[in-house]
Amino acid sequence: MIEIRNLHAEIDGKQIINGLSLTVQNGEVAAIMGPNGSGKSTLSYVISGRDGYEVTGGEILLNGENILEMNAAERAAHGVFLAFQYPLEIPGVTTMTFLKACLNAQRKSRGEAELSTPDFMKRVKAGAEKLGVPQDMLRRALNVGFSGGEKKRMEVLQMSLLEPSFAILDETDSGLDIDALRIVSEGVNALRDPKRSFLVITHYQRLLDYIVPDTVHVMSKGQIVKTGPKELALELEANGYRDYVGEAA
Amino acid sequence: MAGVMKTPSAAEAKLAADYSGVRAALPGNSAVGQLRDAAFDQFKQAGLPTRRVEAWHYTDLRLAMRDVLPLAKATRTDVALNTLAPAIADVDSIRLVLVDGFFAPELSDVACLPKGVSVASLADVLAKGDAGLMEALSAPGMGQNDAALALNTAFMQGGVIIDVAPATQVATAIEIVALASDGAAQAVYSRSLLRVGHGATITLIEREAGGASHAQQRNHAFVVSLADEAQFEHVFVPAPMSAGSTHVASMLVTLGAKAQFNSFTLTCGGGLLRRQVFMRFDGEHAKGQLAGATLLQGKDHADTTLIVQHVAPHCMSREYFKTVLDGDATGVYQGKVIVAPGAQKTDGAMKSHAILLSDGATMNNKPELEIFADDVVCGHGATVAQLDEDQIFYAMARGLPKPVAQSMLLEAFVDEATDRVESEPVRAYLTGLIAQWLKARGLA
C-alpha cells in the first residue's frame, strides 16, 4: 500500500506538486488522468526518487515506511517499480546482464542471497515466454533497436522479475499499436495481486479498457482534484478535463 | 623555430651535460655514435616540446620535465617478475623482459622461442652497427621532427630486437614485459624493433610494470616493420606511474602490401603519458587499426597522438579511442590521417569519444584529415559528453546503486573499444584491468 500525504515537490525551484494526497491499497489498481502539465510524470519521478526533484513537504509511505529519505535504488529494493513512458536504451549492456544485475542488486540490498545463473535463467525464460519476448532479444543490448512494443514488453518483463509491491505505469500505452497494447496489458493484468498496488498514469481512457482500474483520480496543477470509480474515465473521455481544471480548459 | 636562439631550460641544459657525460659509455659503434650526435643536435635545436609545437600543443613536455633524472644504469635482475607482472590468465606467452629498459635474457624465455623467431639485445645490435638493422631501427621518414624521438635516438640504451621469419605462424603470444626496478628515480631510454617477414603472423603484448614508487622519465620507442601479407596483433598496457613521472611511448609502424595490423592501448593513468603512433601504409590493400581506452583521474595526463600516412592506394585505416576522465585529469586525442596524392581508394575512419565524470576534467579532441587524393572515403568523429543522467536514473529505478549504474555504463562505453581486440583471453585481461580501475575509484 502506498500513502502519499500532502506532498509538495519542485524541480529547479518550480513547484509542480502542490499538496497532493493519494492512497493506493494493496490489490488496488488506481488510474491517474489529467491534462498535459498537470504533474503526472513528475509525480512518478518523485515517488521513484529521481535526483533533482526536491520534496518540500509531505510524506510518502510504502507499506507504512517513509521512502523519501531513500535514493531510487533503495526505493526499488523496497518494492517501488516505475515502468517508463520512454524506456532508455543501454548500449553495450545485454538485456540479460542488466536484468541479472538489477535483480541481484535488489536482493543484496534486502539481505537476500543472490540468484545463481541457472535459477535466474529459468525465471527470465519463463517470464519472457509469457510475454512473447524472444530469447534473442535477451541477448541484445537493452532496448537498443527495440520497437516501441518490444520496449514496453521488456518493461513488463522486468516488472514481473522484480516483483514490486507498488508499480507505476507511466503512459504505458504511448507508442503502442492495438496488438501491442493488448499483449502489454495482459502482462500487467497477470501481475495483479492482492499484495500489489498499481498506479496507472494515462492520457487516454483506451488503456483502461485493457487494464481496468478500481479507482480513477483526476490530477490538475499538482493535486488530485477528483476521485471516482472507473466510470469517471469514460466521463473524462466524453467531456474533457474542463470541469476539473478551471480556467486551464 | 630553427635558427632562433633560445635559452635552454634547466632540464635542457642538464640533458646536454648528461649527454656529453654518458655519450662515450652508450652502446654502439662509431656509426651509432654519429647517429646519436645528429639526433642530439636535432634535439638541441628544437628543445623539449612545448605547446608552441603544434603536435605537442596539449602536452607541454618542457613544462612537465623541470628536472632531469639520472640515466638508468646496469641491469638489475633481482626483480620479482611474477609479482610485478603475473601471467595473463589463459594466455600462453613467451616473455621477453626488459628491466629499466635493458633486455634481461636471464629473466626471459629465450630458450623456448618458437621456430622462425629470433631475438637480440639492442645493445649487442648497436655494438655491431649493422647498416641494415640501423636503418630499420631508425624508421626512416617517420617522426623526423619529433624532439622526443630524437632524444630517444640519442640516449637509447636497451631494448629488444625481434625478427619473425617469412611465413612463420607464431601461435604463442610474445610478451615484452618492461619492468621498472623501482629502486630510485631514473630516466629510461629504450628502443625495440619488430620485423615480421612476408606472410608471417604474430601477436605481441607490451606490458609495463613497476615504477609506481619513484618518479620515472621513460622514453620508449617501438619500431615495427610488417612485410607484405604479414599480420600483427598488438596490445600495449603502460603501467601507471607516480605523480611527476613522464612517459613518452612512441610506436612507428610501416605496413607492406596486404599486411594487417591491429593495435590496442589501455592506459589507466598515473603521471604524464604521451602515446604517439606513426603508421604508414607503404603497400596496397593493407589494413591498420589503432584502438584504445584511456582511464584517467586525479592529475593524470594522457595524450594519444596518431599520425597515419596513406602512401599506397587501396588501404584501410581505423582509429577508435575511448577516454574516461575524472578528477582534474587531462586527456588529449590528436589523430591526423594524411592521404598522399597517389593513395586513391583509401578508406579511413577515425573516432574519439570521451566521457567527463567531473567538472575539473578536460578533454582535448583533435581529429584531422589531410587529403591530397580525390577518390577516397575518409571520415572522423569526436565527442565529449557526460554520463547520461536518464540512463543512470533508469538503472537506479531498477535497483542498481548509483556507483554500480555508473560503472556499468562506463564499462559498456569502454567495451566498444576493447571489443576490437581479437583474442578473447587478452580482452578479458583488459576488461579486468578496467574493472579494477572503476572499482578503485569507488564506482563498483
Fold and architecture overview:
The complex is a heterodimer of chains A (249) and B (444). Chain A has a single domain (2-243), classed as P-loop containing nucleotide triphosphate hydrolases (Rossmann fold), CATH 3.40.50. Chain A is built from ten helices and twelve strands. Chain A has helices at 40-48, 72-77, 95-109, 117-130, 135-139, 148-162, 178-190, 206-210, 231-239, 242-245; strands at 2-11, 14-24, 29-33, 53-62, 65-66, 80-83, 90-94, 141-142, 166-170, 197-202, 215-220, 223-228. In chain A, helix 6 packs parallel to helix 7 (178-190). Chain B has one domain (10-386). Helices cover 23% and strands 36% of the residues of chain B. In chain B, helix 2 (30-46) packs antiparallel against helix 7 (147-155), helix 8 (389-397) packs across helix 9 and helix 9 (402-418) packs antiparallel against helix 10. The radius of gyration of chain B is 21 Å and the shape is globular.
Distance between the termini of chain A: 33 Å
Rg over alpha carbons of chain A: 18 Å
Helix content percent band of chain A: 25-40%
Number of domains of chain B: 1
Q: What composes the largest sheet of chain B? A: 10 strands, mixed
What strand order characterises the main sheet of chain A?
6-9-10-3-11-12
Stated plainly, the CATH topology of chain A is called Rossmann fold
Q: Under the CATH scheme, which class of chain A? A: Alpha Beta
Helix/strand structural class of chain B: alpha/beta
Care to count the β-strands of chain A?
A: 12
Number of helices of chain B: 10
Q: Which regions of chain A contain 5 or more consecutive residues with pLDDT less than 50?
A: none
Low-confidence parts of chain B: none
Strand order of the largest sheet of chain B: 2-1-5-7-9-11-13-15-17-19
What's the number of helices of chain A? Answer: 10
